[in-house]
Amino acid sequence: MRILTLGGNGFVGRAVVLDALEHGAEVTSFSRGLSGDGLPAEVVQLVGDRDAGDYAALETGEWDAVVDLSGYQSKQVDEAMDVLGDRVGRYVFVSSHAVYVRTLPAGMTEDAPRQAPLRAADVLTNETYGRCKVACEDDVLERYGDRATLVRPGRVTGPGDSSTTALYWVRRGARGGRVALPTTPEQPLQFIDSRDLARLVVQLIADDRPGAFNAIGPDSTIGELITTAAELAGSAVELVQVPADAVPARFPLMEAEEVWAARRRDPSKARAAGMPVTSLKDTVADLRAWDHDRGEPPLEVGLSDQAEADLLQRR
After folding, report:
1. Which of 13, 130, 204, 233 could bond to 174 as cystine, CB 3.0-4.6 Å?
2. Helices and strands counted in the chain (H then E)
3. Model-level pTM?
4. How far is 12 from 172, CA to CA, in rounded Å?
């Protein structure tokens, strides 16, 4: 099995590459080569720049499947498809749960209504990101038909996750004590472990399976995330709810209550196709271990210790 990844040295891309190698695939990675961790020596690494339209490294070669991890606007996806054409058997587009209409009831499947497509945006924001992914999905389906596979992850975390969304709360829970929480502890989460997402992607390729799949992890809450991190660290926490406007805007994992139900999507199709379910506790434990090994660099989000102490003093 020959797999090409577009963006293979990023967080999720690396997980896909490692899973593919573990299951005997020959892997080629196409990226700018400017970020992310190094890949194993057996990976063929091609250099190009999608933002600049530089796909020269992909003008030759054939693969059983391509996994598009770095297509955010339809221009990028269309250019990649133009270059690859029929030299790839299956086009796996890693999309997002953001494609769906934001206010949906809990338990919706892959047939849930999506947002209106947006073919280009100067800046990707909460308002444009999902719509641009919809346009990408439409183009992949139009070009490859039954050879198209759409994977729609929820929030992804696990070892290698250098983003701040999960790490802020994992570190904060591990530190223990009174925790300022600008939402209710019951705010829902459906983190998916990056390794589970990777296993799904590679299995879908092995099975030559078309269609769309919600790559969603087990139901949990932000309160459970914090208390799980505390338990793993041998700490104890007291969650203290504070007003949302008492913390900076775009605080890690904070979402309007109107979209909470949509965070309870149905993952049964993906699980039936082979997606594992790593427990939140195991994911957090491995994320903490990875973060510790890299020296726990500062996070430029959330509240500083002093700012949180000042806020809590008033509660």
Report:
1. 233
2. 9, 13
3. 0.95
4. 24
